[in-house]
Amino acid sequence: MIALLGNLSRDLLPGQAPRVGGGSYHGARALQQLRVPARIVARCAAADKDSLLPPVIRLGTPVRYVPGVATATFSFSYNGDVRTMTIDALGDSWEPADLPELPSGRWVHVAPLARHEFPLATIAALAKRRRISFDGQGLVRVPEVGPLRLDDDFDRELLRHVWVLKLADEEAEVLGDPAALGVREVVVTHGSRGSTVYCGGRAELVPARAFPGDPTGTGDAFATAYVVARNAGFAPTGAARRATAVVASLIAP
Hints:
single chain; UDP-N-acetylmuramoyl-L-alanine:D-glutamate ligase; nine-stranded mixed beta sheet; five-stranded mixed beta sheet; 28% helix; globular
């Protein structure tokens, strides 16, 4: 049993109706493919629950809703793998008291959308009983409205509680050498070019194929599938290969 925690978002793309986003939604898409025991804990403003939560529930994994007061909102567009994003509104911050009782299990994947959402105290509380997989957006995304900015002004103590750190290329550029971060496993995703796994003093490239299709949320799906594979006993590189295959199944025509 794994758990997936994160805020839902309202995503705005040119010429399209607003749609649900966030790691808890896109991770649920991967879980629908994998059909393994899991629980999703999702949060958004109570006023947006009726529009954002049902698409997550329909994907089939049991969902627990945590009431919130704010909903993260993003405007973005793509040019191939290159994404341009603006933060229109910030989501809630999760304090230790906001964490519900989680089912027994070895892993929890935490999917923040910006740095303020899962502070050190909350991650430390989660790590007391589970291995933490953490999305690097929660380290480098500056929590402010406007064009997305990245910097490395985060509490390094948080990394002490993280077992797996998932980074996109642009996040890895901000943080520097992934092998020097002091995290057991770091996976850097390169979009359609695959990913690199840093573990045990080695770096191994896991290639991928490019497919035409919407890449939104593929990083979240990859991270969730990676944790599922690690929980099933795959080694880190094997888990990345498995996650790559899951992402391909989501976007391939």
